[in-house]
What we know:
Blueprint: H1 2-10, H2 14-27, H3 36-49, E1 54-58, E2 64-70, E3 79-84, E4 103-105, E5 108-110, H4 118-134, E6 142-147, H5 158-164, E7 173-176, E8 180-183, E9 190-199, E10 201-210, E11 214-215, H6 225-238, H7 250-259, H8 264-274, H9 279-287, H10 289-295, E12 298-305, E13 312-313, E14 316-325, H11 331-342, E15 348-351, H12 366-379, E16 384-389, H13 395-400, E17 404-407, E18 413-414, H14 415-419, E19 430-432, H15 436-451
Parallel strand pairs: 3-6, 3-7, 7-17, 8-18, 9-16
Antiparallel strand pairs: 1-2, 2-6, 4-5, 5-19, 8-9, 10-14, 10-15, 11-13, 12-14
Helix pairs in contact: 2-3, 2-4, 2-15, 4-15, 7-8, 8-9, 12-15
Amino acid sequence: MVGALVCLLAAASPVETEAREILELLVAVDTSHGNETKALEPLLQRFRAAGVPAEIVESAPGRGNLIARVRGSGKKRPLLLLAHVDVVPVEGQPWTVPPFTPTEKDGFLYARGVSDDKAMAAAFVAIALEQARSQKPLSRDLIVALTAGEETGGAAGVRWLVQNRKDLLDAELALNEGGAVYTTPDSSRIESVSLGVAEKTFQSFRLVVRGKGGHSSVPPTEGDPVAILARALLRVAEHRFPVKVLPATREQLALLARTEKPPLSEALRRTAEKGTIAADDERVLSKDRIANALVRTTCVTTMLAGSPQDNVLPTTAEATVNCRILPDETREGTMSALKKAIGDGAVEIRVLEEVGVAPSSPIGGQVTEAVRGATRALWGDVPVVHSMGTGATDSRHLRAVGIASFGLGGAPGSLEDARQGRAAHGADERRPVRWLPDGVRFLREVVVRLAREDVQ
Length: 456
Ligand SMILES: [Zn+2]
């Protein structure tokens, strides 16, 4: 009897089993170069079989976005469950397992997308199906949106939907990637939960210096465009934007302090405690890539172009500078700081594609409460911290049109795996198998707390 009971408790629940099944279906379709529709078709069938209205909306042939809606009473405005089903390419990466075949090895599930972002997509589908089948009362509609093209800026997915079919996404709140459930490096327990409430703004600039061209045997004696550009790029590299602690980063810095070593850990702890950065601490924080990116806007040169041939003088020398702007700063401010740092009228600065500056989502509201409650229910006294992403997700497109978007984690994993490039975007992307069901249970707990009438 006791044995049977233990067995029963250890068995995965139907929602966890279904999420795992869907995850394996999703990662088996290579969506690294489009092809999202093919990955979404079996899920459309599942929704329809459960009586949930669902459709696949294509922004271009093969670039599908699946939208399904589980109806609630309408007392509250809808909750959007967003996950992208495209993935980054695997070409040139040293994978030790086939990237588009789910492979269990050494306690991990390996496959491209298992972390970014197909585990979340699978969990959201399973959770929505469970709610629809159980017919428990919902205070708001659950909209599931599984989208295309996040890794290439959202133009095939969320950005396109916001511009062309905003009615489909019209929600008060959205849950998306951009947060995390961290395990310890040995995967033995859950260490912390990070709730993403803000992201840095992605903005690239093109620097252009014009030259006269001609034969390289008679180079210019002054005004060499490449030399002028090189000097400008050095100044960009040496420029330090001002440091600050934002409400979205303060707890994140405190959490980072717990896993780093002195003197970085001490500088982080003091900074998080005071909410301001002392000059001595600034020097320490500025040497660490992650801490530096959390406390200031950064700009870095990523692309260079000159003449197309070695014996031809360039008529233009060009560089692309990619900036990641703190959410309370502007593109214009960043551009004029760059101009001032370069201090050379011969260098023209152009703004490349603008994706909009998105405000932060509220801290401490209903989503914070739901995430804290879910964390406590599952793992007890594990810290929950608000965080800012240094990278960009589709949340920016939602925040820009007034949908408060929050970053959660799909499948739990360690920060160490992320640092080693085994979480998002790297070779051998993987997640510990033993925590996959907990990842689903966590998201389910958050959704239930936000949307179920009998739980509120
Ligand atoms: Zn992603």
